[in-house]
Design brief:
The chain is an alpha+beta fold. It folds into three domains: 50 residues; 80 residues, DNA polymerase, domain 1 (Orthogonal Bundle); 141 residues, Intergrase catalytic core (hpI Integrase, Chain A, Orthogonal Bundle). 44% of the residues lie in helices and 14% in strands. A hairpin with a 5-residue loop joins strand 1 and strand 2. Helix 2 runs antiparallel to helix 3, helix 2 crosses helix 5 and helix 6 packs antiparallel against helix 7. The protein is elongated. The N and C termini lie far apart (74 Å). One of its GO terms (molecular function) is DNA binding. This is Site-specific recombinase XerD. Keywords: DNA recombination, DNA-binding. It comes from Mycolicibacterium fluoranthenivorans.
Length: 377
């Protein structure tokens, strides 16, 4: 049990000290209470926390957020380079602004204030990502027994607006591919096989089996700090996807280690270069998703807009139209779970309520006859 004693400061003021043992049986104390009631309240809460396993040494919470966030990132050994780079940006910006705040001083109210400040200058999605990093840092502090609870948990964040998914019809996909010229095959691979851009950029001829009409997706390339980094696909797992005869006929095999879709210099494609060199022109020529806006002279002009990644949505839509089920679509896209696939693309599947009713009725009547009744009592 804790003991309370009175002492006098050098200035003559009366203060109270609480002596107690930590859960590992080390004796320590906390001084400076101005009233005995405050000292007793601290001692009582201390005993409750020890019984609940929620005891945190006062010194543990004095570690600064900036220092501890650096330790957190250093402990993350399995991050993809692109993810590590994104986390580092948060540490260099948001965390750096609050680096001198002690972990023990971070309350839910303080986190709410940080969220409000971020929301004034950042998009909701950016706020979610930033606070997500903070939440992970503080979660490790809870595990390390530096905090009792995670003050970022349960803090309300700004709503992220849903972005409408855009899909190309088969006719529009053909138009885009034709407008892409020498890049026609790339448009069809992205628009029918569901590869991510980074996966297509690292695709090599040894991964393409034209006789079996398959593509083995085992690697992806990402631009991190202006350097190409090759790693596993998103989710860490490879997959095999089918290619149609139509698309296979557009591919002319090269040496096994050569890139299937190289940049003009023979290296990996850069998304910015692709958009600037031919993608935007192809989208305009195919007249995809027009919108009207005013130019500097105040005149109405038509802008055409479609993102490279949206070819992945197009591939999903076409696969569903062709009769693909959720599991096969999950494999094609490389999603970690069918639930994610269903959440993203479930609305594209037609309702089978009537078909299910008919099927169940057939099961009930197949062996029992058409008239299954109940004998009168």
């Amino acid at each position: 049990m804790a003991t309370i004693s009175k002492y006098q400061t050098s200035g003559g003021s009366v203060r109270y000290r609480v002596r107690y043992r930590t859960p590992d049986r080390r004796q320590t104390d906390k001084r400076g209470f101005t009233t005995k009631r405050d000292a007793e309240a601290f001692a009582n809460q201390l005993e409750v926390d020890k019984r609940r396993g929620a005891y945190v040494a006062p010194a543990a919470g004095r570690v600064k957020l900036g220092e501890y966030a650096g330790e957190w990132l250093g402990s993350k050994h399995n991050l993809k380079p692109s993810t590590r780079s994104r986390y580092q940006v948060v540490l260099d910006t948001f965390i750096a602004r609050h680096a001198e705040v002690a972990l023990g001083d971070i309350s839910r109210q303080l986190v709410r204030e940080w969220v409000a400040d971020l929301s004034a200058s950042h998009a909701p999605a950016s706020v979610h990502k930033t606070i997500g990093v903070l939440r992970q840092v503080l979660a490790m502090a809870v595990v390390d027994n530096r905090l009792v609870i995670n003050p970022a948990d349960g803090v309300e964040l700004p709503a992220v607006g849903t972005v409408e998914q855009r899909f190309l019809t088969l006719e529009k996909l053909h138009a885009l591919a034709d407008a892409a010229g020498e890049h026609r095959a790339l448009v069809y691979v992205l628009g029918t096989c569901g590869l991510r851009f980074g996966e297509a950029a690292e695709l090599r001829w040894r991964d393409v089996l034209l006789d079996k009409k398959t593509i083995s997706v085992r690697r992806s390339v990402t631009l991190v700090d202006n350097k190409f980094v090759v790693g596993t696909p998103k989710g860490g797992k490879g997959r095999t996807v089918s290619i149609s005869d139509f698309v296979a006929d557009l591919l002319t095999p090269g040496a096994a280690d050569e890139l299937v879709f190289p940049d003009t210099a023979g290296g990996h494609m850069r998304g910015t270069n692709v958009r600037r060199r031919w993608w935007l022109d192809a989208v305009t020529a195919a007249q995809l998703f027009p919108r009207v806006e005013k130019n500097a002279a105040g005149e109405n002009i038509t802008i055409y807009e479609f993102k490279i990644h949206e070819l992945r949505h197009t591939a999903s839509s076409l696969a569903i139209q062709a009769g693909a089920n959720i599991k096969s679509l999950q494999n094609m896209l490389g999603h970690e779970s069918a639930a994610l696939t269903l959440d993203r693309y479930g609305h594209l599947f037609e309702s089978d309520v009537e078909a299910v009713g008919i099927a169940i009725n057939q099961l009930l009547t197949r062996d029992c006859g058409q008239s299954v009744g109940t004998d009168a009592a």
